[in-house]
Write a structure and sequence with these properties.
Length: 401
């Protein structure tokens, strides 16, 4: 029995009490630490909740600010797009005006060139480099210069339309991206913690290489806006230029056309006056020819009237030459017959007025032919200037485009 009481495998009662005290102390200590942990956890949870809510609230505010910023720039882009589209449409109408003006120059140029060509058919002294020809050459040069100017302006307008469309394309692409970005941010703004189907995204924190800074984002849109403004201002300046060119060229064409028409009217009046004077001279020549022809007829009759006395005198002399022997006497009768015959013959030979009259008639005939030829020259000139050219020029119509 004593051996059992002294068994070393058994604990002492004091150890039992000590163990119980230690268990209690350890448990209480663990409980205390656990309570502290729970308190700290609730504090941390509360802190995290507040921080999360604050952070999420800040994100929501920044998201709303970003949406407003996108809306602002989207509105700016919309305004610039509307302006550039409007200016491009107006510029297209100006382009059509230029094309019509360019087309309208062709007929006056063809008419001027035809007039120059027709007037090459003038003949004789009328084929001169007169005021009409000078003004026609100037008109052709003015029209060719205007055609070249309108052509260059049309090319400039086409280039401006291309620039406008390029600016419009950039605005549309920027607007399209901003619409997509605004749609995405609108979706993000609508999300809450209770929104269904929200998920974890493993790569959400990954930054791709094509991210740009906010400054670059603003600069990009600013460049598109400034380019649109620049092209719009260029379009406004070009429209004013086109208006001025169309007005000035139309005035120049009208002025030169009237100068040519005035020169034609003056020239036709001069040619008609010259033709009238030639016709007056021709009438005078024709009267003189008639008078000379009467004069020649009278001279010829006067010569013919002397044939009887000559024949009588010659017949008498011939007969008296047959007197016989001593009767063949150079008496006063024979002497008078000889004198009569010599006098008549001498008077007939002195009728050189007939030859002179015939020479004058030939000269008058040549003058008649010359005047008739010159009148035909004037008639040809009048037909060319008054009929071919002036009537053709009546079809020329210079409009304001």
């Amino acid at each position: 029995m004593a051996r059992l009481l002294q068994d070393l495998s058994k604990h002492h009662p004091s150890e039992w009490y000590t163990a119980n005290r230690m268990q209690r102390a350890t448990t209480e200590s663990q409980k205390s630490r656990s309570e502290c942990n729970i308190a700290e956890s609730w504090r941390l949870v509360d802190e995290i909740e507040k921080t999360t809510q604050k952070t999420q609230s800040d994100v929501n505010k920044k998201l709303e600010q970003r949406r407003e910023e996108i809306k602002f720039w989207k509105q700016e882009l919309d305004n610039k797009l509307e302006q550039i589209v409007h200016e491009t449409e107006i510029l297209l109408t100006f382009k059509k005006r230029l094309e019509r003006a360019l087309e309208g120059c062709k007929e006056p140029l063809v008419v001027a060139q035809k007039c120059l060509l027709y007037r090459q058919r003038r003949v004789g002294i009328d084929l001169i480099h007169d005021e009409v020809e000078q003004e026609l050459v100037k008109e052709a040069e003015v029209l060719q210069g205007i055609i070249a100017l309108l052509g260059r302006t049309l090319e400039q307008t086409n280039e401006q339309i291309r620039q406008n469309r390029s600016a419009k394309y950039n605005l549309e692409m920027d607007l399209k991206d901003k619409f997509t970005a605004l749609t995405i941010d609108d979706y993000c703004a609508s999300l809450t913690n209770d929104t269904p189907h929200i998920i974890y995204a493993d790569n959400a924190m990954k930054l791709e290489g094509n991210f740009v800074s906010p400054e670059d984002w603003i600069d990009f849109t600013n460049i598109n806006v400034e380019k649109a403004d620049k092209q719009r201002n260029n379009s406004l300046a070009l429209k004013a230029l086109i208006d001025g060119i169309l007005s000035q060229t139309a005035n120049d064409m009208r002025k030169q056309c009237e100068m040519v028409n005035t020169a034609f009217r003056n020239r036709v009046r001069e040619v008609k006056d010259a033709k009238h004077k030639l016709e007056t001279l021709l009438a005078m020549v024709m009267d003189e020819i008639a008078s000379q022809e009467k004069n020649i007829a009278a001279l010829k009759k006067a010569i013919a009237d002397k044939e009887g006395p000559v024949k009588v005198a010659q017949t008498r002399l011939e007969a008296r030459n047959h007197r016989p022997n001593v009767e063949l006497c150079y008496d006063t009768v024979h002497n008078s017959l000889m004198s009569e015959l010599q006098e008549i013959t001498k008077n007939i030979q002195r009728q050189d007025a007939l030859a002179q009259a015939q020479t004058e008639l030939k000269g008058l005939s040549r003058r008649q032919l010359s005047l008739e030829e010159e009148i035909k020259v004037k008639e040809n000139t009048l037909y060319i200037d008054e009929v071919l050219c002036m009537q053709m020029r009546e079809s020329v119509c210079i409009n304001n485009y």
